[in-house]
Amino acid sequence: MTDAPAARRGIPGATVARLPVYLRALAGLAATGVDTVSSEELAEAAGVRSAKLRKDLSYLGSYGVRGVGYDVVRLREEIARELGLQYDWSVAIIGMGNLGHALAAYSGFATRGFRVTWLVDEDPNLVGSRIAGLTVIDMDALATQPPAGLIGVIATPPTAAQSVADRLVEMGVHSILNFAPCVLAVPDGVEVRKVDLATELQILAFHEQHARAELGPLADLAAVEVADARQEATS
C-alpha cells in the first residue's frame, strides 16, 4: 500500500460514513487471524461493492498490492487515523432517561475509542446519583469543565433537545449526536448526526410492505398455512 496525504483532502461524506463499516469488517477479519484481504473479500464483509470500496480507500491513498490485497493491520490503522481515533475523545451523555441509561452502560463506546466522561441531567432527583459508575451532574457543572474534544450525545425529550444543543455550542462543542426526534438548529462549524430509531423502523416497514405486495397471493397463502398449522397445534 502507498499513502498519499494529498488524497485525504475532500473525502466525500458518503465515503466517511462507510469508513467505520470497513473498520468493523477489518476488526472481524483480524480477530480470525487474517493478515491480508482482497478488495472483493473486504467488500463482501462490509456489504458493499468492491468497486465502491476501492474508490473509497483511494481517497485515503490506500490502493493495496495487486495479487496480494490489503494488509489488514495497516489498513485498520490508516482508517482509524483518518477517523481521528488516535485521539482521546470524551463523551457527555445528556438526558438520563431510559435511553440515556442504556447508552451510559453501552460498552461499545470504549472499545471504539470513545470514553463516556460525563452523564448529565437537570432533574434534581437524578443529579448526584450514580449510573454506570459515573456521578450524574447538571449542565452548569458540565460548563465549569471546559470540554476539549468533547462529543455531546443528546438523549433528552425533543422539547429539551434544542436548549441542550445551544448550551453545548456555548461551551465550544462542535460535534453532537442527537437521539431526540427533532431537527436541531446549530451554527456553521457544528456537526450534528441524527439517530432516529422510529424513522429507521418506518423505512423497514415500507420495504416490508412492498415486499409483501410483490409476493401477492403467495404471501396470503403462506399466512393461511401458518394459521392452519397453529390451529392444528392447539387442537
UniProtKB/TrEMBL annotation:
NAD(+) binds at residues 95-100. Residues 21-60 bind DNA. It is found in: Cytoplasm. Its main location: cytoplasm. Residues 84-183 form the CoA-binding domain. Keywords: Cytoplasm, DNA-binding, NAD, Repressor, Transcription, Transcription regulation. It comes from the Bacteria. Pfam families: CoA_binding, Put_DNA-bind_N. Belongs to the transcriptional regulatory Rex family. Homodimer. Modulates transcription in response to changes in cellular NADH/NAD(+) redox state. This is Redox-sensing transcriptional repressor Rex. The gene is rex.
